[in-house]
Amino acid sequence: MRGEADNNAQKDLTTEYALDVEGVKNVNNEMTVSEAGEATSSAQKIAAKTNVVVELIDDTSITALVKTSLLYHRSTSAINTEVETKNGVVTLKGIAKTSAEKDLAGRYASDVNGVNKVNNIIIVIVE
């Protein structure tokens, strides 16, 4: 596969979806990740340019950002996910249809600024 993805999670999910197609045995994913997708957050960019220390985000903000991120992305929006954050450690609970959905939810959560670790205990139920 070739093309451009917004981030590594999107690139990996594309591979997982292709592997889920009946008859596909191998996927050579040569997609590139856009510079915008790999760029750090706006706050981090500003801090780097002005030598200002970025304050840590509190747990409530992290939880809200993770929930928003999961709802925003089409591939994880259908997962009914419970998100808890304590000291920057995010725990994801819920039910996913595929392991790719579960993995992607964990990756999106780990991409949120302020997340130190993700405990992904989402259960995969194959229908």
**Tally of strands:** 6
Order of helices and strands: EHEHHHEEHEE
The helix content, as a percent range, equals: 40-55%
Low-confidence stretches: 50-56
Number of helices: 5
How much of the sequence lies in strands comes to 15-25%
Structural class by sheet pairing and helices: alpha/beta
Radius of gyration: 16 Å
Q: Taking all residues together, what is the mean pLDDT?
A: 79
Net shape:
globular
Measure the end-to-end span: 28 Å
Largest sheet: 4 strands, mixed
Chain-wise SSE layout:
Elements: E1 4-5, H1 8-19, E2 32-33, H2 35-38, H3 42-50, H4 59-72, E3 80-86, E4 89-96, H5 99-110, E5 117-120, E6 123-124
Helix pairs in contact: 1-5, 4-5
Describe the structure.
By secondary structure, the chain is of the alpha/beta class. 40% of the residues lie in helices and 20% in strands. The strands form two sheets. Strands 3, 4, 5 and 6 form a four-stranded mixed β-sheet that branches. Helix 1 (8-19) packs antiparallel against helix 5 (99-110) and helix 4 (59-72) crosses helix 5. The longest helix has 14 residues, at 59-72. The radius of gyration is 16 Å and the shape is globular. It starts with a strand and ends with a strand.
